[in-house]
Amino acid sequence: MKTGRIAIRYAKALFDLAVEQNVLEVVHSDMDVMHKVCVSNKDFRLLLQSPIISQDKKISVFKALFAESFNFMSFRFLEIIIKKRREVAIDEIAEEFINMYKDKHNIKTVYLKTATAPSVSLIENIKQMLVKQLNANIELVQTVIPNLIGGFVLSVDDRQYDASVRRNINRLKKEYHINFYESKI
Questions:
Q1: Which pLDDT tens digit goes with each residue over 34-68?
Q2: 20 to 30 A Cα–Cα from 14, which one of 20, 57, 91, 100?
Q3: Phi, psi angles (nearest 5°) of residue 67
Q4: What is the separation, in whole angstroms, between the first and last Cα of the chain?
């Protein structure tokens, strides 16, 4: 069975149980933390992927890191995942759980790439416009990419709107087969 399928099945089971037990918000917070730890900490990922490290050792590491801060149900779920030898999929399970949570609460993640950091008022205007356009709550992830030169790139789901100066320069190059940087002397 592929890891993706496993992740979806386990995430669905945890999601349904969290809804049933009325602890969805807390479990979402726990899975968000778990996903961030997996993404940001290479040593933690290596610990999960290592076949040499015993299950007991992995469980004791989880207890030391998460037993106090995580909800009992979240922690027990992760413990079961390790006992079932599915710890390699923990990051994907957490990510799938977060996606299910976003679907339930109609939250869309929008990625905004700009050449310089936009003002707070501009970000709020963009969010309001997107709420009307997408008819959803918006989670805006902003990154600054100086080589865009100017403008912005907005990505949501599988759509992208590129209003960057770099794109326009590249379009003109293709259209006119001109190298703007080469001297014609």
A1: 999 999 999 999 999 999 999 999 999 999 999 99
A2: 57
A3: -60, -40
A4: 63
Q: Would you state the structure tokens that stand for residue 155, as one six-digit string?
A: 């990505």
Residue ranges of E strands in the chain = 107-114, 137-144, 152-156, 159-162
Distance of CA 57 to the CA centre of its chain: 28
Q: Rounded to an integer, what distance in angstroms lies between the CA atom of residue 14 and that of residue 95?
A: 12
Q: How far is C-alpha 181 from the geometric centre of its chain's CA atoms? A: 38
pLDDT, one tens digit per residue, over 119-167 is 899 899 989 998 998 899 999 999 998 887 888 888 998 888 888 878 8
Give me the amino acid identity at 178: I
- The domains found in the chain, sorted by start residue, are 3-103 (1.10.520.20), 106-176 (3.40.30)
E-assigned strands of 34-106?
none
- CA separation for the pair 68, 86 (Å, rounded): 22
Tell me which residue has tokens 């006119």: 176
Coil, strand or helix at 158: coil
Taking CA atoms, 52 is separated from 3, 39, 49, 61, in Å, by 20, 22, 9, 15
What dihedral do alpha carbons 19, 24, 28, 30 form, nearest 10°?
Answer: -110
